[in-house]
Specification:
By secondary structure, this protein is of the alpha/beta class. The chain has eight helices and 14 strands. The strands form four sheets. Strands 3-2-6-1-7 form a five-stranded parallel beta sheet, sandwiched between helices. Strands 8-9-12-10-11 form a five-stranded mixed beta sheet, sandwiched between helices. A hairpin with a 2-residue loop joins strand 4 and strand 5. Helix 3 crosses helix 4. The protein starts with a strand and ends with a strand. Bound molecules: S-adenosylmethionine (SAM).
């Protein structure tokens, strides 16, 4: 039976793979992987498994999405156990829809194995709850990458008014424009903002700032790895404290 596993490889640290992802990988005959997948994770596939680099990294596509879909279908037709390994979670900015549609169109069954997305890995390393009670009412995952590398057409005012935590994937190169839009939409210039490069890996770097200062700081850091941007009061140093019987207050300690 032709069957493909679309597997989330997580943010990089092999220990953050799910048990199911590990089992599927250990049984693979071929692994089609993106460039954000850590080599130590590829090493978990059996020695005989063919490792096929489809080199997809935002902004640097070495194979087009159509080519990847074609290859995936071809590989699945061999009858081998095929794993399509994607960074983070396949369903979060992972172009999973295109690949699932290609498989469906050819009558090939598939299973999606979720992975830890960059946002939750970054939040864990910062020891910061993205939905901190009384501070963040919602959580928004956004792309920072629009058509032809420009800015996406977000509803900047709604996002700013949401009072939620904004997590921007693929936003390091457009951060200046993103910040300008948020500030123009009414976001306070001192809104906490953090960039995390290589979340979960030993080479992780974290840059703290505000929505006004972060673009310059990220540019100066000349990041080479994947970068996640997180914006919102939840990223500040605020803490909900008990101030009396059933009464809570939000205190900010060393707010930048
Ligand atoms: C094409 S998206 C893929 C997202 C992935 N499917 C996920 O769930 O994390 C690539 C973007 O994810 C973010 N990203 C992925 N891995 C990361 C990591 N280890 N550290 C920081 N950001 C990461 C970066 O914003 C990067 O540009």
């Amino acid at each position: 039976m032709n069957h493909v596993f679309l597997v989330g490889a997580g943010p990089g640290d092999p220990e953050l793979l799910t048990v199911k992802a590990l089992r599927v990988l250990q049984n693979a005959d071929a692994v089609l992987y993106d460039s954000l997948v850590d080599p130590r994770i590829l090493d978990l596939a059996p020695p005989h498994a063919r490792r096929i680099d489809v080199g997809k990294r935002c902004g640097r596509h070495s194979a087009s999405q159509a080519d990847i879909c074609r290859l995936l279908v071809e590989e699945a037709r061999t009858g081998d156990k095929i794993v399509r390994l994607k960074g983070g979670d396949p369903m979060i900015f992972g172009r999973a829809t295109e690949e699932m549609n290609a498989l469906r169109a050819h009558g090939i069954g598939f299973t999606v194995v979720p992975g830890i997305t960059a946002a939750t890995a970054a939040a864990a390393s910062l020891e910061c709850s993205l939905t901190r009670r009384a501070v963040a009412r919602s959580l928004h995952f956004l792309t920072g990458h629009g058509a032809e590398g420009g800015l996406p057409a977000h509803d900047w005012v709604s996002l700013t008014k949401s009072g939620g935590t904004l997590v921007v994937y693929m936003g390091s190169h457009t951060l200046g424009g993103l910040a300008a839009h948020f500030i123009e939409a009414g976001m306070p210039t001192d809104m906490p903002a953090v960039a995390v490069e290589n979340a979960s890996l030993l080479q992780q770097r974290t840059i703290h700032g505000t929505i006004a200062s972060l673009p310059g700081a990220v540019e100066a850091a000349a990041c080479g790895g994947p970068v996640l941007i997180m914006i919102g009061e939840a990223l500040g140093d605020g803490a909900v404290v008990q101030v009396g019987e059933g009464q809570e207050e939000l205190l900010f300690v060393n707010k930048k």
